[in-house]
Amino acid sequence: MKRSILSVALLVLLLNASCSKTALAPDLTQSTETSTLFGARVSTGLVALPASTLPTAVKSYLDQNVSGYTLIRVEKMRQPGTTTYWGTKVTVLQNGVPVDYFFDTNGALTTRPAGPRGEIITRLTAAQLPASVSNYLNQTYAGYQLVVAESMQINGTAQEYRVQILSNNQRIDVHFDGTGTFRDAHGAPSNLETAHSVTYISRDNLSDAIKTTLNSTYSNYKYGWAEQHVHDGTTTYDVKLFNNGQPVVLHFDTSGAQVAPAGPGGPTGPGSTTAVAGPGSTTAVAGPKPAGPAGAPTPPAAADRQLILDAASLPSAITSYLQANFSGYIFLAADLHTPPTGTTGEYKVDLAVGQQLYKLKFSSSGELLKAEARR
């Protein structure tokens, strides 16, 4: 086991709302603060997940049918409200765009089950859009380029149409109701060529200004790890600390000054809190006070979670898997929790290999349930 960096981060599942039209048509994976369908970003410098994280039959299908893919996510999918798995969801990058494939328990390509309300999301071509939608787009955004269009149906009846276009080099999300009547529109974050990336940064490679802040204002905090984020061409640094067993995330710009979190989603560690300036605050600000007599109280840890700061506390089966599949990894943090529908605990693990960050989830017996290359 490589050296452990003391840290803490509560990890949560990220849900992607994408569905296939047919078993042979994969889906674009989209995730932004304004829409679960739109906002895919090109990832720069991404190191793929090891092919060994794929079931054998799934790997065989991808190798034979998906040219030049980069594997970024593998997840066993549960039947809603049960502990039964219906198959595996795989996300790959193709030409810089995330694409989802779904496989049954035998590794055969399949469609994604309907959502909890029975909703089916289907990707549409320009020709498949209702005339009212096409007419509105042509009249309002003359010369636009269609990026992606999807319909959401329940029991065979269209509930809404969601379209993303490129107009005057700006991405725009346009929403229509089930009859094709315009509902709302808003600019999507950035443009198609904009990258968002995240990489692991060792403490030694942080700027002197950041080190000075850590050594002065946060000298009583335990250091976790640091990440470099590039969002819409702007570089920032997230430094993860913990205080009294609770996570704190600091955000810095390239000059070493503390800033508000950049990009969608705020603090990058699910379950973490951004350092605050006063009691009760949850907003990142410059010059926050550390928790203590003059700072905000630290909330208690979730009752169903056990934070793991030492890699030696992981089950041997998980350790063996990491050593075999993520050579040279650095353990960052983990937590053990029991899902609502389960009876045994699951381990969620953050680790780095070089500058690439990964999130993994294992069963209590060491079976890999999810692996994701952070982008």
Write the layout of secondary structure elements.
Layout: E1 27-28, H1 56-65, E2 70-78, E3 85-94, E4 97-104, E5 109-110, E6 119-124, H2 131-140, E7 145-154, E8 157-167, E9 170-177, E10 182-187, E11 196-201, H3 208-216, E12 222-231, E13 234-243, E14 246-253, E15 273-274, E16 305-308, H4 316-325, E17 330-337, E18 346-353, E19 356-363, E20 368-373
Parallel strand pairs: 14-15
Antiparallel strand pairs: 1-4, 2-3, 2-20, 3-4, 4-5, 6-7, 7-8, 8-9, 9-10, 11-12, 12-13, 13-14, 16-17, 17-18, 18-19, 19-20
General form:
globular
Judged by helices, strands and strand pairing, the structural class is: mainly beta
What composes the largest sheet?
10 strands, antiparallel
Count the beta strands.
Answer: 20
Helix tally equals 4
Q: Quote the distance from N terminus to C terminus.
A: 25 Å
CATH overall fold name of the domain at 27-187: Nuclear Transport Factor 2, Chain: A
Supply Rg: 22 Å
Strand content: 35-45%
Which CATH class of the domain at 27-187 applies here?
Alpha Beta
Average pLDDT works out at 77
Q: If classified by CATH, what would the architecture of the domain at 27-187 be? A: Roll
Order of helices and strands: EHEEEEEHEEEEEHEEEEEHEEEE
Q: Spans of 5+ residues with little confidence (pLDDT < 50)? A: 1-44, 264-273, 275-301
How helix-rich are the residues, as a percent range? 10-25%
Region (Disordered): 261-300
Organism: Spirosoma liriopis
Domain Putative beta-lactamase-inhibitor-like PepSY-like: 123-183, 308-370
Keywords: Signal
